[in-house]
Amino acid sequence: MALLQRAPWGTFGAALLCLVLAFLLWGGANRGRKIILATTMVLVVFAAVMARLNYFEWMFHPVPAAQFESAAASKLDKSEMILAIRYGSDARAYPIREMAYHHILNDVVGGIPVAVTY
Prior knowledge:
Elements: H1 2-26, H2 31-50, H3 56-59, E1 82-87, E2 90-95, H4 96-102, E3 104-109, E4 112-117
Antiparallel strand pairs: 1-2, 3-4
Helix pairs in contact: 1-2
């Protein structure tokens, strides 16, 4: 986690250093070296941008607002696995097939905020 928190600053510093070095080397470089410098700079900029993005959200889209149905109106098979939570008189069931895709869902059960995860 410490590395993850510092990665954006580290990549920014590395990108800045590479940019300065490329600028210094550009003037005396031949065509082949300029191509290598330009390619390296594209890769460095790509790495710096990717360090700032949460690419896991691209793969696992968060659920903006959970929608629930009564057990009678549900279209779940009787053999389908669920995650269930009950607090007081309030109960929820989360299908495993949906949780396996999204992995986490924020909800409120019985007035208590919960993070359901699989």
